[in-house]
Amino acid sequence: MDTIDHFNxxxxxxxxxxxxxxxxxxxxxTRAAKRLKIQQPAMSHNLSTLRVxxxxxxxxxxxxxxxxTVRASKLAGPIRNALNQAQAAxxxxxxxxxATENRVFRIGMSSAVDLLLLPDLxxxxxxxxxxxxxxxxxxxxxxxxxxxxxGVLDMAVGCKYSPASRHSIEVxxxxxxxxxxxxxxxxxxxxxxxxxYEQADHAVISHSDSLKGCLEGALEFAGADLNxxxxxxxxxxxxxxxxxxxxxxxxxxxxxxxxxxxxGLALSPVPVDLKFPPVAMVWPRHAENDSxxxxxxxxxxxxxxxxxxxxxxxxxxxx
Length: 319
Fold this sequence. Notes:
Layout: H1 6-10, H2 15-26, H3 29-36, H4 40-54, E1 59-62, E2 65-68, H5 70-91, E3 103-109, H6 111-128, E4 132-135, H7 144-150, E5 155-158, E6 168-173, E7 177-181, H8 194-199, E8 201-205, H9 216-222, E9 227-232, H10 235-244, E10 248-252, H11 253-259, E11 266-269, E12 279-283, H12 291-318
Helix pairs in contact: 2-3, 2-5, 3-4, 6-12, 11-12
């Protein structure tokens, strides 16, 4: 894109270009003034100013008309093009057609949301918006605001966000957890009793150097403790650990309902009242009215609204 000299343009009254174009069209000062709905003396003043700025007569009287000079004739085309582009920019709407849009959306997702959203959103886009592609880059929650500001991320979906963020935030659903275990390796009553839950070995999600990871704060708040024997940042690793070992994996309920039955794991409510932040969608306010972003956020809402029944059916089919 060519650089625009804003300082010089600021000193030029761009309305003069409109007056010039009207004079080219009408060939008469009075008729040009009428077209612009201004008085004839004002149009004469515009012509005088144009002559000074362009150092040319621009229009000379021949009989009852004003004939453009060579300089004016050369200016006419570029000025008309500039006015046409300005008019098109002012009246154009932000038109979005998912069937023809060609765009990459960069969505920061927590590890749980990656497993829940990416498969269904990709499948939906392949059907209705084949030109839209998804990139889910790794990011640190502490840098979320900066990444949204810089356009590195178009939006983020997860549970770690600041309610005081300067960006737009919408809660999608409350975060709940469930127990998953291999009934062939762990003989437990279902629902799992509190005593059995506390005495069992556990595998949990951890994105830090804490063995109890994401459950640590919730366990402390509930006054509970667990014997964690394995922790990993990936939910599939934790679920596969529960499949291979006599341990309980405590994972988000939506992850459990979607994937546990596929892995031959039993599901049970957690017998401890564990509290977690809700899962929310965050996007920059400067993109609030971007039609493509509005459409994509609608798709994400629909997917999470429909997910529990759809995933339960998938789990039953897999079983």
